[in-house]
Amino acid sequence: MMAVDFFGPNDSWAESPDVATLPLHEIDAMFRDFHVIDRSVRDEDGRFLAEKKHWHVITTLARKVR
């Protein structure tokens, strides 16, 4: 089983060279040989510490297909 958080392209940190982002279709391709048990997408304004931030986080829980 695998649980992963990915930053999506709408995240306010997406333009940083130190942050990797993936669109949903590329994440789906990575999980082609997995059964996706759960997925949630957070695409909303929020905060990080004291700063305003836009979060775009794609959380995926999957199990390898045997």
Describe the structure.
This protein has 66 residues and is mainly β. Helix content is 11%, strand content 53%. The chain is built from 1 helix and 3 strands; from the N terminus they run βαββ. A 3-stranded antiparallel beta sheet has the order 1-3-2, with no helix packed on it. A hairpin with a 2-residue loop joins strand 2 and strand 3. The longest helix has 7 residues. The chain is elongated. 5% of the residues are buried. The mean pLDDT is 96.
Task: Describe the structure using short key phrases.
single chain, 66 residues, mainly beta, 3-stranded antiparallel sheet
Could you estimate the helical fraction of the residues in percent?
A: 10-25%
- Indicate the low-confidence ranges by residue numbers: none
> How large is the share of residues in beta strands?
over 45%
Outline the biggest β-sheet.
Answer: 3 strands, antiparallel
Report the principal-axis shape.
elongated
Structural class: mainly beta
Gap between N and C termini: 12 Å
